[in-house]
User: What shape does this take?
Amino acid sequence: MDPLPPSAVRAMSVSDPPRLPVRFLWLLLLLLSATAEAAPLRVPLTIPYALLESAFGAWSGGADDAGCRRLQTGAPELEARGGELHFVATVEAALGAEVLGKCVQPLAWLGMADVVLEPYVDEAWQLRFRLGATELSDADGTRAPVLSAIWELVRHLLVPRLESFSFDLDAPRAEIRALVRSAAPALETVLAGLRLGEPVAGERGVVVPLLLELPADLPAPPVPPPVPPPVATEAEDAAVLAARRQAGERIDAFLVFVVKQAGLDLEDPELRAALFSLLLQSRYRLLAILDGSAPETEGDPVRVLLREDWERLRGILLEAEQRGLGGGALLRYVSFLNAGDVLLALDAAAPELGVWISAEGLRRLALGLRPGYPGDPLEYGYDVDFELRRLFGFPDEPPLPPPLPEQEPDRSGGLMDWLVRPARAAAPAPDPVTLLGRHLERRVPGIDELPVYRAEMAGLLRLVGERELQDAALAPGAAAVYRALLPATALIESCWRQYVREGGKVTFIASPVGSVGLMQVNTRVWRGLYDVERLRWEVAYNARAGAQILLRYLRDPGLKVAQRSGDAAHLPRAAYAAYNAGPGGATRFLARDGSVKAGAVDRRLWRLYQGFSAGAEPDLQRCDVGGDES
Assistant: This one.
């Protein structure tokens, strides 16, 4: 971990303390207002040990001179033991005497210093430490007669430095007052009751309680949309749904911004995978909220979603902190986590205050992770986000297919008849997937066309699947599962159709919740990761996207579920369950005792999967396996 620069540490006579840009009071800009009795709120703020270690480490490597005595400390570690904070560091000492004007050092010692630190906050909002018991030991942990002399050296050189160390907590107070004064002057009076409690040594850092006195005469806040009553008019239902959609999109945009920034800062593949899983699962849950299929919650379900997303995000970032973030990044994430923790703690401890996360609040919170960002972190759109795709290991987007000819060729004779017609001499060899996709574009087959259409669609799915398997490095058994699962999934999702005829016009198949095309790829869940217009209108692009998503879920969580259960039959079931309901739904086909539930979706999936595994042909009239359309 990179240490803070020496100028950021107050040691001895250094007058410029480290400033922790913890914007943890942004919550006062987040529409915190209500009518309630004044009550103090106690919210724990954490200064991570890793950050303090970095600050201490800025001077620990240097040597101190005191006549013919020298003391050098190594990089310290801060440890919480039994409710006490311990400063532990290697100590290298040299004890000598001045002889004839020269320093003679006959004695050198290498050992460990273990000092109990008692944190406190002074009147100037500086986090400081009183020193408790100090233990010195040789490198092997034993005591030696020379320790008394070493202790005198430690007492004169190390102890004053520890006692003079401070960590500035006043900077955020001044910053927040400036923000409130400029953005919401009426709320500045709330800051009058702000104070800090007694800090303690927590599991991962020094915990400083934030104590906030809220007056009883705060203005009434805008209230989040209520849960619709049992009987509501169509207009009331539409208004509630629109408000939830707007709030959900705001949360999704916020989460995308944070996940992207964290993904850029973290290079750990496991942590990146956890961030991506969080984003997807949040989107699946939002989808369920909007279509009415989500389980009932106490209060606004979108608000509950945000609270639970934050807890998962917090856990991932804390794990990243433990694995080591660079000094600058660590400062930003401490600010971000404390800000969100304060907001969510207020929401949980005093829901009667009507704390709600406004667009401006989320925007300010997000920008704390990327100061100077020129755009709007809450922008919600459907354009492909190539940075997001790269971060989470998506392959390059396929090129756009060539434009359709002004007059489409007659395709009644099948694909081969179409391909062997005269072509321009200089035309390059076309990509087979693109060719099949173009041949199937806007096709709504009649009953008599189904045999040919079935063969061509089977060819497209087979080509797409094999192309995805080329770089997948799957074991042969898992690859065989994928080869049968891909056509089975397409049959469940759309009966192998991309298009439908409505009002005499051909359009793409779409579900009420925004899933489109052959593989029913949901445009809300996968926005930014795939081109929505191409998902709608290009059958080959839709097939590729669905094949990639299914392969991703087969690898994780599908393989993990099958490995944990020891049952290979759980692999296709878990992969499709995740495809259908997100990573969190991968085990929904399992009962508590590990047996398979008798759900209709799983039964159908299993029957189709077994059929394709055995080489059966699909019946596109019945949307099943077996039978003959000819």
Residues 1-38, 178-184, 227-232, 420-425 have pLDDT under 50 and may be disordered. The first helix runs from residue 49 to 60.
